[in-house]
Amino acid sequence: MQESVTAVGDDQPEHTGVEAPPGSELWTEARLLTTYSLNEHLNPFDIDVGVDGDTVTLSGTVDTPVARDLAVLLARDLSGVDQVVDRLQVAPPDQTERTVNPFYRSVTEANTSARVKLQLLWREPVDGLLVDVTTSGDKVILSGEVRSAEDKALAERIARRTEGVAAVESQLTVDPDATLADEARAVMTSAAEQVSDAWLTARVAASLRFDRRLDAARVDATTQDGVVTLSGQVPTAADKGEAAALAAAIDGVARVENLIAVEGPET
């Protein structure tokens, strides 16, 4: 589901490396930087935060006007802040790549790899463990061995549809004898059988959010005794069917009740 854009609360932000008394300017700065760090749409290393009393000044360079508006909104929502001075600049499209902090880029790439890997594990735990996923920029590289051409095509399709992926390089090879050790297979099978309803709901919700072709914010998922119920509203019947297919493919889901409404004709 789409993540909230509300600011971090008044409690001491963890792991900021900053010792500051509550209510101080340094305290406000640490809370705002923590908020930016927790938001996947912002690069906290590109935003400079200055605090003078109840006024926050933002400077630096962001990639898009949307990122600038989001940074300002989060600052305004922070308790104790009465005024936000926006001095943020938006990088021209041809300069965006040069403004990306190397550490932030590595975090983003790791996040993309994790999204793809998790979906492979949730769809078919054993085969998912046979596939290695790495990311370079917005390109995902798949390597390893799978047991069939169908498994190879599925892994490539999952990667292509994952949010943040622009290209997929597949180095996967097909080996019908490719397998994990029996011990590993037994552990994964046992774990899949014991997945709780709450964990199934989390897996379905995450898979919907990871898929860049679906607006996951418009779909709600609940689970009861392994049966996943989808509700909400989507633009097309194809979107409704795709959401159900994603949910049904999650390992441990017994059945999907698709109650999603379609805005247009269901043809």
Task: Please tell me about this protein's structure.
The protein has helices spanning 25-38, 65-77, 96-99, 102-123, 125-130, 149-161, 182-193, 197-210, 237-248, and strands at 47-52, 55-62, 83-90, 131-136, 139-146, 167-174, 219-224, 227-234, 255-258, 261-262. Strands 7, 8, 9 and 10 form a four-stranded mixed beta sheet that branches. The protein has a three-stranded mixed beta sheet with strand order 1-2-3. It has a three-stranded mixed beta sheet with strand order 4-5-6. With 267 residues, the protein is of the alpha/beta class. The two termini are 26 Å apart. Strand 8 (227-234), helix 9 (237-248) and strand 9 (255-258) form a beta-alpha-beta unit. The chain has nine helices and ten strands.
Element string (H = helix, E = strand): HEEHEHHHEEHEHHEEHEE
Structural class: alpha/beta
Number of strands: 10
Unreliable residue runs: 1-21
What is the multimeric organization of the chains shown? single chain
Radius of gyration: 22 Å
| Distance between the amino and carboxyl termini | 26 Å
Average pLDDT, rounded to a whole number, is 78
Draw up the topology in text:
Blueprint: H1 25-38, E1 47-52, E2 55-62, H2 65-77, E3 83-90, H3 96-99, H4 102-123, H5 125-130, E4 131-136, E5 139-146, H6 149-161, E6 167-174, H7 182-193, H8 197-210, E7 219-224, E8 227-234, H9 237-248, E9 255-258, E10 261-262
Parallel strand pairs: 2-3, 5-6, 8-9, 8-10
Antiparallel strand pairs: 1-2, 4-5, 7-8
